[in-house]
Model the fold of this input.
Amino acid sequence: MTKLPAAPTTALFQSERQQEIVTLAIENRRVEVADLAHRFNVTTETIRRDLSELQAHRLVRRVHGGATPWETGGFEPLLSKRDDQHESEKRRIAMAAAHELPDTGSVIIDSGSTAGRFVDAVPADTTLRFVTNSLLIAQTLSERTDADVIVIGGKVRKNTLAMVDAHAVEAIEPIHVDTVFMSADAASATAGLTTPYREEAAWKRAIIRSARRVVMLLDHSKFDQEQFVRFATWSDIDVLVTNTETDPDQLAVIEASGTTVVTA
Done:
């Protein structure tokens, strides 16, 4: 049995604890009720209820004494966990995507781990105006550049530190920018771009409508998947920036739809 990493130093809300349980199950292939109860300083009955709820949402499978990952679950890991996944590919994508920045005007940058790498590649002397729904991206842009940074308000999602609710959608609707840089939870050459979350899908549709040009940043792990809600087809996307490990057959289908494909 793989030893679980150190426990959180502060108590977690139920939703945060359950997200962490799924992350641990994915990383360790199995979690034990007793270990989880000790880790989170809760009763074994509380952990069993957590596992039952997670199984109902097809995020884990209950087994004797614990749980294993539900292989096809639509779980969104904490942003800190996603930051560690496919790091080199995301940095290559970010560097290539920086060439898609307009010379002047305004830009929307969506939340996400790949977008976080992208803002690291934005030139420090840029004169662009940036709009984002991500607290982390706004902080990075403000620290690295002298550009104007506008943060779209709304309820903060604890796992991404971003705003995607109805207030965020309402705030973005009157805004028109030159280019939007965004990502997706899942991509398919035939099914388009999808996410497990309806609020996230509504936000992404809104930023696509607000931009003259749409640039999608996706690493190869996002492809050949389909989640609950589709927010765009490839005809909505002007440029796809991905890494060279992405299936060339899928990229050929995407290019045939009119999307320019850039590989890094």
In short: DSSP finds ten helices and 15 strands in the chain. Residues 14-28 form the longest helix (15 residues).
